[in-house]
Automatic annotation (TrEMBL):
NCBIfam families per record: ATPase-Plipid, ATPase_P-type
Membrane topology: Multi-pass membrane protein
Record gene name: ATP9B
GO biological process, one term: endocytosis
Protein's name in the database: Phospholipid-transporting ATPase
GO cellular component: endosome; plasma membrane; trans-Golgi network
Domain P-type ATPase C-terminal: 885-1119
Gene Ontology MF annotations: ATP binding; ATP hydrolysis activity; ATPase-coupled intramembrane lipid transporter activity; magnesium ion binding
Protein localization: Golgi apparatus, trans-Golgi network membrane; Membrane
UniProt binding sites for ATP: D452, K453, T454, E575, F617, K641, R670, T750, G751, D752, R832, K838, N861, D862
Enzyme Commission number(s) from the entry: 7.6.2.1
Pfam families, alphabetized: Hydrolase (PF00702), PhoLip_ATPase_C (PF16212), PhoLip_ATPase_N (PF16209)
Binding site for Mg(2+): D452, T454, D858, D862
Catalytic site: D452 (4-aspartylphosphate intermediate)
Organism: Canis lupus dingo (dingo)
Length: 1127
């Protein structure tokens, strides 16, 4: 979708261009000078300057990259890789030069007037196109050493001098692996193509001189006037069809489900008819496309009137792509399209994820390759380099090529598919979908979990829980008392009003000037509820009646003002919760516009209030206020509500506020302090004149305006304290505790406010009760970042809370130090994070900590983070399915992540490690036998077993038992969930390491040697049977080794063992020509003799028994950690 500036609702702000650019230039010089000075500053610096205390000189370790000497060593150790990638990047940059992003002038409704070309408004998520698909997929496959090695080996079989056995023994497995991969990629790619096509062909209404026309999303151009109805999204906003403002939802952009108010440009909103948009000569000047979704600068100019009208545009005049108009219809002009929209600029390209286990196996494969080359060289050396030795060397390389088994890739890929199937079939986590089948083992290796807040940890449903008046507190069970208190004052008012109007105003006027008497509880409740019902930015919205079309401008009579048809819209769900609560106790907000609002009392009377001033909530002031005039009494009231830190200094002295705020916060409630102050007409007029003057000033406007407002914020009467609960998702607390016990560090990255994020971190037990929280002060330059980092470094075992802006500054100057300090924290909360920042934090953790990361989220703003992490988990939530479609694993509830990691992550990793090593053992053992065979027979490069036996060995005879290791489990699922500490062992990667690999290598050499020498020793006289004997013993050994490796038996494992043995015995009878060496086997009779059976049994026992004894001793002397639990 494109991005639009609403035209028939374009909004007004003023920009001073000349002055700001001059100021910026001066500031830039100053900054450069400051950073030059800071470069020489030692990193530890105390607020008082430098103290002589020695502890102050433990400077933070600076990240200095030592320049390696670029010699031959550098080239061999990876320099060649660096040079290759540099060349490729250079070529790619030349091929697709990035256009420089520039500011633009957009004429209303005349896209053809645009001087430069803008990108097409189409979305493209595909990785490949028709030409790059096959090369791209093949590159992804053969960049792995394992696959590349097989390709070379298979191709060598086309050379007659090197041919060993049959072509199919090499090409069949390789062809199978490639066919499966290409099919899988093709299906994924086709699905992406279909999704893109669906989005790009959505229809929108475009306004032209001739009226409305339908255009596809991909045909929208910069400068088009688009009519955006209820569910479409994207623009500057020029005109609203019914009012001068509208609400939009931005959950897919910043993850927050609250509704944002957008205002139309007043110049175009005043035009009498839609067609007049084409009769005026007007243009929008907009800044160049940027990543920041929270700011926009531009101007609207109308040239055809005298003098020309200039209006400044800000963020509140824009509708970004991927946002949704929640009410009404908007007309806007398209400013940014396609790749230049905020949502596309904030999403990163998906990368192909490779699991840590695959990388480790790739390293082991390289080690095996070195062993293979060494073994071949030794063989040729022992031959004495006779004749064409290099040809013999290559033949030996091919003979021993089974050291690196091709079936490793096949087995592991099939294993991954099996784990995916098991995860999706698990009834304890229903609705889980595995979208990336290549990384299930990653779930067992995670150290960092980065989670979103809204919709992931919380349900984003606010519920009013507590009203505290100082002496009395009302909870959920005593709300009916409040209703009773409210009925009394309003019924009295009504009876007075019905008597005569003058008498009703006089007593109240008198009362306000009379000395203060202790108010009754009833009147205090009444005051508090009225303040909550008036001090907010909530708008009630009524849907048009069914059957009404958006075309006709409907009148108010067409609207349905019944309670059931009303929905509240506001910039924060807390606000809505408060207004819904006042409705539930009897005081209902029935209508509101920019200048007035109406409340309905329990008795049905309508009270009208004029809105004289609004002071919106900002993260700096942490409070909002409103000045209203009661139309019936002409009384002027200033109401204010805000965070306790901001309000405690504003309200009159009291002894209960601080204590009660602390109590509510411990319960996980979000607190707001509500206060009021009555103003006389003179006081208000004086304030208004000063306020208007401050708003017009050019220099330090924000400071002057704040100062005027603060003059009112004195000695306010404290009315009440409210507590609202953001309900957590089911079982969030036990799940987070389980993950913490499992050694996983949890970071919360949210686009929400600092106070809210801190509150949820406490209530979800992300930060435990005993831990301190260090709130990183806002920093804007290097010096401040420096001091703040040092202050944080002195703290121990405390959670860190940091905002996105401060994070950006710290990462610019002290990236290494910040990440190092943050990694030591038990928990980290980053608030006000943009989607790009979330992804950046994930990448930083991967670089600096070198551990596996997992990101979990539920909105479009989490997609970048999910794609950047080693393992991305999406939750299907209220914010749509965007995150769950982009993720590797999709779950329906946050609590399912516990079982996904503890049970499935554990078993996937353990099984794949056992399977990988066993498949390697299977290749090593046969290569050892080949080496012994060749060395006994004068180092001849002749294969021991014929082609079919080799294929049968890796498939039919041993495949099922070996593959049945994917059903093995060392710990029952219940145990793994009960003792999450077991997960810590997995992150150390001990199940598959060079140590375990060496153990398997030694086992293989021992067994291979015993099998071959045993066969040669026992069968000297009947050498022709050596192949049959050794091969039978080999198969039996393999089957027994599987039984030895298994930790928990499954009935399918037993079936696989019996089936494989049966297949082998049958083939002995029918394929006997393969078993005789050179000549056709004498007869089947020999195989059935007692001699054959006892000799094979003897060799098998010698090769396996010692290993069973060793395994038994190891279990007795150093049992694994989990065996203590299972016994």
């Amino acid at each position: 979708a494109s991005e639009i500036l609403p035209v028939r609702r374009l909004l007004s702000v003023s920009l001073e261009e000349g002055t700001s650019s001059r100021a910026a230039t001066g500031h830039m010089y100053q900054l450069e000078d400051e950073s030059a000075h800071l470069d020489e500053m030692p990193l530890m610096m105390s607020e008082e300057g430098f103290e002589n205390d020695e502890s102050d000189y433990h400077t933070l370790p600076r990240a200095r990259v030592t320049q390696r000497k670029r010699g031959l060593e550098w080239f061999v150790c990876g320099g060649w890789k660096f040079l290759c990638t540099s060349c490729c990047d250079w070529l790619v940059n030349i091929c697709q030069r990035k256009r420089e992003l520039k500011a633009r002038t957009v004429w209303l409704g005349y896209p053809e007037k645009c001087e430069e070309k803008h990108p097409r408004n189409s979305i493209k998520n595909q990785k490949y196109n028709v030409f790059t698909f096959i090369p791209g997929v093949l590159y992804e496959q053969f960049k792995f050493f394992l696959n590349l090695y097989f390709l070379v080996v298979s191709c060598s079989q086309f050379v007659p001098a090197l041919k060993i056995g049959y072509l199919y023994t090499y090409w069949a497995p390789l062809g199978f692996v490639l066919a499966v991969t290409i099919m899988r990629e093709a299906i994924d790619e086709f699905r992406r193509f279909q999704r893109d096509k669906e989005v790009n062909s959505q229809l929108y209404s475009k306004l032209t001189v001739r009226g409305k026309v339908q255009v596809k999303s991909s045909d929208i151009q910069v400068g088009d006037l688009i009519i955006v109805e209820k569910v479409d999204a994207f623009l500057i906003y020029f005109r609203h069809v019914y009012a001068s403002s509208c609400f939009i939802r931005t959950d897919q952009l910043d993850g927050e489900t609250d509704w944002k108010l957008k205002v139309a440009v007043s110049c175009t909103q005043r035009l009498p008819a839609l067609g007049d948009l084409f009769s005026i000569s007007a243009y929008v000047y907009a800044q160049k496309p940027q990543l920041d979704i929270h700011s926009f600068e531009g101007t609207f100019t109308r040239e055809d009137c005298d003098p020309p009208i200039h209006e400044s545009l800000s963020i509140e005049n824009t509708l970004w792509a991927s946002t949704i108009v929640a009410s009404g219809t908007v007309i806007g002009v398209v400013i940014y399209t396609g790749k230049e929209t905020r949502s596309v600029m904030n999403t990163s390209n998906p990368k192909n994820k490779v699991g840590l286990l695959d990388l480790e196996l790739n390293q082991l494969t390289k080690a095996l390759f070195v062993a293979l080359v060494a073994l071949s060289v030794v063989m040729v050396t022992l031959q004495g380099f006779v004749g064409p030795w290099y040809r013999n060397l290559f033949r030996f390389l091919l003979l021993f090529s089974y050291i690196i088994p091709i079936s490793l890739r096949v087995n592991l890929d099939m294993g991954k598919a099996a784990y995916g199937w098991m995860i999706m079939k698990d009834e304890s986590i229903p609705g889980t979908v595995v979208r990336t089948s290549t990384i299930p083992e990653e779930l067992g290796r995670l150290v960092y979990l980065l989670t979103d807040k809204t919709g992931t940890l919380t349900q984003n449903e606010m519920v009013f829980k507590r009203l505290h008046l100082g002496t009395v507190s009302y909870g959920a069970d005593t709300m009916d008392e409040i209703q009773n208190h409210l009925r009394n004052p309003y019924s009295q008012m009504q009876s007075q009003a019905s008597g005569n109007n003058t008498s009703s105003t006089l007593p109240r006027k008198a009362q306000s000037s009379a000395p203060k008497v202790r108010k009754s509880v009833s009147s205090r409740v009444h005051e508090a509820v009225k303040a909550i019902a008036l001090c907010h930015n909530v708008t009630p919205v009524y849907e048009p009646r069914a059957g009404m079309t958006g075309e006709a401008e409907y009148t108010e009579a067409d609207q349905d003002f019944s309670d059931g048809n009303r929905t509240y819209q506001a910039a924060s769900p807390d606000e809505v919760a408060l207004v819904q609560w006042t409705e539930s106790v009897g005081l209902t907000l029935v209508s509101r516009d920019l200048t007035s609002m109406q409340l309905r009392t329990p008795s049905g009377q309508i009270l009208t209030y004029s809105i004289l001033q609004m002071f919106p909530f900002t993260s700096e002031s942490k409070r909002m206020g409103v000045i209203v005039r009661d139309e019936s009494t002409t009384e002027i009231m200033f109401y204010m509500k805000g965070a306790d830190v901001a309000m405690s200094s504003i309200v009159q002295y009291n002894d209960w506020l601080e204590e009660e705020c602390g109590n509510m916060a411990r319960e996980g409630l979000r607190t707001l302090v509500v206060a009021k102050r009555a103003l006389t007409e003179e006081q208000y007029q004086d304030f208004e004149s000063r306020y208007s003057q401050a708003k017009l000033s050019i220099h330090d406007r924000a400071l002057k305006v704040a100062a005027v407002v603060e003059s009112l914020e004195r000695e306010m009467e404290l009315l009440c304290l409210t507590g609202v609960e953001d309900q957590l998702q089911a079982d969030v607390r036990p799940t987070l505790e389980m993950l913490r016990n499992a050694g996983i560090k949890i970071w919360m990255l949210t686009g929400d406010k600092l106070e809210t994020a801190t509150c949820i971190a406490k209530s979800s037990h992300l930060v435990s009760r005993t831990q301190d929280i260090h709130i990183f002060r806002p920093v804007t330059n290097r010096g401040e970042a420096h001091l703040e980092l040092n202050a944080f470094r002195r703290k121990h075992d405390c959670a860190l809370v940091i905002s996105g802006d401060s994070l950006e500054v710290c990462l610019k100057y002290y990236e290494h130090e910040l990440v190092e300090l943050a990694c030591q924290c038990p928990a980290v909360v980053c608030c006000r994070c943009s989607p790009t920042q979330k992804a950046h934090i994930v990448k930083l953790l991967q670089q600096h900590a070198g551990r596996r990361t997992c990101a979990i989220g539920d909105g479009g703003n989490d997609v970048s983070m999910i794609q950047a992490a080693d393992c991305g988990i999406g939750i299907e939530g209220k914010e749509g399915r965007q995150a769950s479609l982009a993720a590797d694993f999709s779950i329906t509830q946050f609590k399912h992540i516990g079982r996904l990691l503890m049970v499935h992550g554990r078993s996937s990793y353990k099984r794949s490690a056992a399977l990988g090593q066993f498949v390697m053992h299977r290749g090593l053992i046969i290569s050892t036998m080949q080496a012994v065979f060749s060395s006994v027979f004068y180092f001849a490069s002749v294969p021991l077993y014929q082609g079919f036996l080799m294929v049968g060995y890796a498939t039919l005879y041993t495949m099922f038992p070996v593959f049945s290791l994917v059903l093995d489990q060392d710990v029952k699922p219940e145990m793994a969930m009960l003792y999450p500490e077991l997960y810590k062992d997995l992150t150390k990667g001990r199940s598959l390491s060079f140590k375990t690999f060496l153990v398997w290598v030694l086992i293989s050499i021992y067994q291979g040697g015993i099998l071959m020498y045993g066969a040669l020793l026992l069968f000297e006289s009947e050498f022709v049977h050596v192949v049959a004997i050794s091969f039978t013993a080999l198969i039996l050994t393999e089957l027994l080794m599987v039984a030895l490796t298994v930790r928990t038996w499954h009935w399918l494992m037993a079936v696989a063992e019996v089936l494989s043995l049966g297949c082998y015995v049958a083939s002995l009878a029918f394929l006997n020509e393969y078993f005789g060496k050179g000549a056709v086997s004498r007869d089947v009779a020999f195989i059935t003799t007692v001699t054959f059976v006892w000799k094979v049994s003897a060799i098998t026992v010698v090769s396996c028994l010692p290993l069973y004894v060793l395994k038994y001793l190891k279990r007795k002397l150093s049992p694994p950690s989990y065996s203590k639990l299972t016994s």
